[in-house]
Amino acid sequence: MKIAVIGVGRWGVHLLRNFLAHPQVSVVAVVDPQAERLAAVKQQFNLDENILLTTQWSALQQVAGLTAVAIATPATTHYALIKEALHLGYHVLAEKPLTLDPGECLELCQIAEQQHLILMVDHTYLFHPAVEQGQTVVKAGKLGNLRYGYATRTHLGPVRQDVDALWDLAIHDIAIFNNWLGQIPVKVQATGTVWLQGVENRELTHSPSGLADLVWVTLTYPDEFQVYIHLCWGNPDKQRRLAVVGSRGCLIFDEMSTTSPLTLLHGEFERQGNQFLPVNQKPEMLELKTGEPLQRVCDRFILSIIQNTTPDISSGWVGTELVQILSGLTASLNQGGQPVVLKINGF
């Protein structure tokens, strides 16, 4: 299967690495507007002379038998690139988010269906062994009655100049919560703080106040389950921690853990008179499958093309839902934290 990789920056280079190693794939072209990046990946991967290296997207139309493209370019470029790729008959794997506009996402999904092509979004966390195992634990009812969820995603950079911390970071945790709960939020709230890039950057963002460096998110699901997310790219305390709390325990996905990324903390209350005493407390480190999540993404994309089946776990439709949620959160952010009711796919 002949594939081209579009964009070989920080993330695109990993897509290139995985597709070069895939037994059912032949990378036939690499596109990037910066010639020095093309030279760097040619040297890094010792690319065959037959692979087209070009700064021009339009040059791909000269590649015979091209089946699919993997797009890892800035989010602002996604809509135009994906739309043209679909009209040219290419299957598409796109870096998240699908686009920055829900209407554009919906249009791309409809074009893919009309053209009978695969449109998949690289929501890598949905293919992480810890997330897959976590979904199994939640669905099995091991946490008892679900009560609430929380997540923290902080670090010191990189600071984006095209989107704020909400669009840069939140999509990961929202995707995981939706996956574990099997639900989509019906109401969202967000508040934020801008320190680094104020109103002079308003032309680059949905927010008239600039690019928020710190964002607090609240998601409310149909069953009234609520999630609270802390996002910041100006915090030296790097955290990647997400949890769902129930009446009988707490499931924690902690990427920074030195012991196990997925832990089930058993524990519940036993009532004695008018007191509630903790009982049955014990940690359980859950065993996980091995494998790089991005490799699984690439494998699923190729398998979906071969079998002509929509990759439900991370389809264009899933990507559209997440963009709709982020758009609702942006609206709330711009309104000072006012709740926004969502009508997913209903606009």
TrEMBL record:
- Supply the name of the protein: Gfo/Idh/MocA family oxidoreductase
Q: Which organism is it from?
A: Nodularia spumigena UHCC 0060
Q: Which Pfam families does its entry note?
A: GFO_IDH_MocA (PF01408), GFO_IDH_MocA_C3 (PF22725)
**Domain Gfo/Idh/MocA-like oxidoreductase N-terminal span(s) in chain numbering:** 1-123
Tell me the superkingdom of the source: Bacteria
Tell me which InterPro entries the record gives: Gfo/Idh/MocA-like_OxRdtase_N (IPR000683), Gfo/Idh/MocA_Oxidoreductases (IPR051450), GFO_IDH_MocA-like_dom (IPR055170), NAD(P)-bd_dom_sf (IPR036291)
Gene3D superfamilies, A to Z: Dihydrodipicolinate Reductase, domain 2, NAD(P)-binding Rossmann-like Domain
Where do the GFO/IDH/MocA-like oxidoreductase domain residues begin and end? 135-251
